[in-house]
Amino acid sequence: MTILTDLTMLEVKKSLENKDFSAVELTNAYIDNIKKHKDLNCFITETFDRAIDDAKATDDRISKGESLKLLDGIPIAMKDLFCTKGILTTASSKILGNFIPTYESTVSQKLIDVGSVLLGKVALDEFAMGGSTKTSYYGIVKNPYKDKTRPDKILVPGGSSGGSSSAVAAGLALGATATDTGGSVRQPSAFTGIVGIKPTYGRVSRWGCVAFASSLDTCSVMGRNVIDAALMLQAVSGYDEKDSTSFKSDVPNWFDDLQKNSDQSLKGIKIGLPKEYFENISEELMNVIQARINDMKNLGAEFIDISLPSTKYALPVYYIIAPAEASANLARYDGVRFGFRSLNDNKEFESLNDMYIKTRTEGFGEEVKRRLMIGTAVLSSGMYDHYFLKAAKVRRIISNEFADAFSKVDVIMTPTATGGAFAVDDVMSPIDMYMNDVFTVASNLAGVPAISIPAGNDSKTGLPFGMQLIGKMFDESSILRTANIVEKTVAFDNRPSKLFC
Ligand code: GLN
Known about the structure:
Elements: H1 9-17, H2 23-36, E1 43-46, H3 48-63, E2 75-79, H4 106-113, E3 117-122, H5 162-170, E4 175-180, H6 186-192, E5 195-198, E6 218-223, H7 226-236, H8 254-260, E7 270-274, H9 283-298, E8 302-306, H10 311-329, H11 352-363, H12 366-379, H13 385-405, E9 411-415, H14 430-435, H15 441-446, E10 450-457, E11 464-471, H16 476-489, H17 496-499
Parallel strand pairs: 2-3, 2-4, 7-8, 7-9
Antiparallel strand pairs: 1-3, 4-6, 5-6, 5-10, 9-11, 10-11
Helix pairs in contact: 2-3, 5-6, 7-8, 10-12, 10-13
The chain binds glutamine (GLN).
């Protein structure tokens, strides 16, 4: 029997066209799964009535014999950072706990335009700050995977897009939106055995996406395989006059390209292995990555050892620039214009400042406050030159090193994270948590595109490991094409039903 929620987007598209099942039937299968796996806590807001209406519209189009749109009838989840008209948008924060936007973000509008079905809004680390989804005000999100060596432990789905990754991995959505400021689409994809792509900065409009660090925030997508991720990316990419950093160029037809490209060879592709990314990884992870390198060599790829020497500064640079930008962006949550205002035990506030302080103290979580304090500090007059300005200069060096590397290679390959998913109750300091991003932040600082695909499993824990392919500016095509070929060599089964058997 076909389990509808196990099908890929491509299979669903074909089946809908053949009328094997209806979009409403498919949507109901997803709704049933969401209800069955409520304990994963992926969704903050479920939009099931809207989903059924969306699916009916697809079925209508099919019955009228209209040609199907790009994501017609595809049930998706939306990271709760994208403003959705008339639908609660919280950024997983208490401070936006009652915020219902009167407008649609460009990404969510584009997903409406291509006929997708919105199942609901999924959780994230508060304001996308984190790598575990543990900082969501709406409770932790669970990873559907279990660690075989300690099966009693609940694992994190990664972060910040942990609601998106867990939902896609567990079959609660066929695809999801995500955002990636320092790794938030790639690390959670790696932790849950799915595919996540962060496009080039400027490829997808940020308009209507709640801002964290504007020069790094990259609206991104997740799917269960490379073609699904390409389809999602195709749908949301493109110039938008409402975003001044949006890039004016045509969007390549990645989906067609991957479908038509039957050539499974990697001949002529030069892949760079930056030594700095392989220094402190476990033997298990190295074995898995080595196996993929061997596969790729067998397919004709040429590997070249490269160096990105300033990588070691990427993390500290990121943790100066991101909090600095966040402290400016989050200044707007003041209890006046957006969302929550402190009730002050029903007493009068002493002053306007008193209201601001109480609202922000009660409205933001601990990690957000930590970032705001770091950000405010590094921007203060005594520290600006030493921290922010210096970080901005090192960022340029990191960017130049990438440009230099890409004069020698087409694609750079690294692990996505230093290991597999960790447990919710593993003791970690904020710095340990920040170390999670060590392989992902550099591509945000440089603005280059990067994808994470499943590389295989840890032979002891059984958990998935991710591998990352980084591309040149605006060359998503090369990383998608390479990832699509590599995916076929990996014996990785990510049918959701197998996780719960
Ligand atoms: N984990 C990183 C952070 O906490 C990245 C977050 C993201 O990409 N949104 O800042």
